[in-house]
Amino acid sequence: MGTTQVRWLATLFILTLSLAVVGCPAESVKVGAVLPLEGEAATYGVAVKRGMELAFAEVQADETFAPPLELEFLDSGSDPTKAQEQLEQLFGQGVSTVIGGVTSGEAKQMMDVVDRYDRILLSPTASSPELTGISRNFYRIWPSDHTEANKMAQSAAQGLGVETIVIIAEEQPYAKDIQSVFEPAFEGFGGEVLETIEFPPNTTDLEALVARAMSLDPDAVYLAGYVDGIGSMIKALRAKNYGGKILTTSAFATPSAIAEMGDAAAGVFLTQTVFEPHSDFAHVQKFVNAYKTAYNGEVPDIYAAHGYDVMKVLAEALRGRPNIPGEVKKGLRDKIKEFPGVTGSIQFDDKGDVRKFPRLYVIGSDLLLVDYNEQVRLKQEEIKRKRESLRKQLEAIQKKATDISG
What we know:
With 406 residues, this protein is an alpha/beta fold. The protein has helices at residues 3-23, 42-61, 80-92, 104-117, 145-159, 173-188, 207-215, 227-239, 255-261, 282-294, 302-318, 325-334, 372-405, and strands at residues 29-35, 69-75, 97-100, 120-123, 138-140, 164-170, 192-199, 220-224, 245-248, 269-272, 339-341, 344-346, 359-363, 369-371. Strand 8 (220-224), helix 8 (227-239) and strand 9 form a beta-alpha-beta unit.
């Protein structure tokens, strides 16, 4: 082969390589999402979708991000069986990673498909303790009910002075999971659970249940269920003028539900992870402002925030990686370390659980969530300032009296 021919082949090779790199865009990666956009869990699913869409738009606008992403939403209708079928549909289409399992019931139902395909399911909000370590392909950015229920048990017994309590819970998986943790934890902190009262979801007449709970004269009631059920329980308790404390879960932490309840919601205690819409952090304000712009000034709730974070986390795990399930898993494990989410720092443990810790909140008279421990701290500082002011006034009076007598 002559020198000229060798040079020509070399030039052709370089041109071909250049065209492959520059002229042909990278193959896009399709990401799926199975969310309850209708049915009893739609309050959570719709909020998660809104947050995801905002995060996805930011990823799309990032010119440095590769590979390009496509996102397809499917509606489970709050039906775990349908969620399972839709997950199978997406994996069957070659999707390597799906965001889903908004409720624990849907997440649990999806596990068989997850393991059979050996692909990733990343949940924004599933919280059942049973999901911890359930699959090496399952990750979640919402902490287990174990941490939330333990936090409420400790706060009730040690911070709120609750000695006796009645649990009122819907007969559904989420409520059963959280009460199964709360009851032994509360008793472990020295409290007494007088009784657990369960009722079917969508029950409208709760008068007899409330009458039974009040007959036991508890210091507090702990309400477990989804947002509509919790709201109905609070209304029934207020209608009977229950005078004890009302405690519940993060399932009630939606501005729309609290606003709908009005004054009846004021004074209710709940636990949830940290999301402060008024935070000074730039990335939090960026999200909040984008949400307000998109939704007529509405402030995002904690579910929208987790939808935003779950999309950001997945995008970061996919950044610069081939569309292979093992690579996605490696990205989640190796790249997501103290990731700056709007719901706090995100990092997974070796079982796929996020390392987050809930706080105790109380709904104020303005129907906004207030960090209870921060509220107590501020009140203590105010009392300290008043005492100091009174001390100085007393010293001034004593000095004046001394001067007069002298």
